[in-house]
Amino acid sequence: MRRALPTLVAVAACAVLVASAVAFSSDTPTHRSLVEQVRDTLESRYYRELPSSVLGRPTVGGIIAALQDPYTEYLAPAEARELRRRVEGRYSGIGATVTPSRGGLVVTSAPPGPARAAGVRTGDLIVAIDGVAAAQLSSEEAIRAIVGTEGTLVSLGVRRKGGRLSFRIARADVVSSPVRASVVVYYGRRIGLLRVYRFTEGAAERLRRAAAELRAQGVTGYVLDLRSNPGGLLDEAVGVASMFLDGAVVTAIRGAHAPLRVLRADGGALHPQLPVVVVVNRYSASSSEIVAAALQENHRALVVGEPTFGKALVQAVEELEGGAALRLTAARYLTPSGRDISGAGITPDVLAVDDPSTLANEALPEALAVLPVP
Length: 374
Known about the structure:
- The chain is 24% helix and 30% strand.
- It has helices at residues 34-45, 52-55, 60-67, 77-87, 114-118, 139-146, 203-216, 234-241, 287-297, 363-370; strands at residues 3-4, 8-9, 24-26, 73-75, 90-93, 97-101, 104-109, 125-129, 132-133, 153-160, 163-170, 172-175, 179-186, 189-196, 222-225, 249-255, 258-264, 276-280, 302-305, 313-319, 325-334, 350-351.
């Protein structure tokens, strides 16, 4: 019997807290060989048609290598279990979010947790993990090297402002909140700040509750901060957009083996008129880009910040026999106007760039300045 969990959107920027966004499903045992399972799954689910020169390769590694798709990979049982935990917002690791960059992994956020306590900061470039050059690892390999059993140590080599630092960090069990909310007073106006760190399970409902509490405190507008948010569950992104859109198109997804599916806001907008500004940066990806584009193209919000990452792929995870899984690219997503933002990202209405080497929040004043008065 087939069991399908919610669809997720591919995380363009890999994260320690959330792996590439995926949808889990499984079948009853068929006792097919592993190669046959992988081949059949790709043939029926992959986002584009595949030639026999790819599917006919004799090994799983050979088939996946021939795809030339960094977001499709085989996951051993332990790796599949860890991916589930990260999707749920639970994992054992260091509590930092990273994204691939030339030479290693850039730390895009370091909220309170083991990494921050050890001295890791936003903007640091991780160049080595337990003595292995980060540039030699795939994004998922790097994530697996950083996460691990609670209480064990991981050594990181970090480059900061041209210098080299070393950290030994004890991994801890982390249950991270995907949302943070606060109030700021700007020229006498009370403005609600809504930060979404990742679109894990329950993020939209948490944000909905937080926004309602801020509204009860008299806020007259919201700044929705999606900076360095690497993405996550598609359903959660639609839920967040639905807070501000009343029945409008949020996104559409299509693949070689699935018809075009248009996803709309659920029609239950809590704040269909209250002013909103969305803040993004170069590390805002996938689900973050879906929300930003939906609010921008439906003329519901201005977007402030930098051009976003530009990853418009939807991924799925198919469970294989024995607890292993195949993570694969299953579709592309389009913005409400029908644009494919792969490689281009979302262009902000107002350019504002944060300096990762400072503690100042340079983009926030720009967002507050352009937030309309209701």
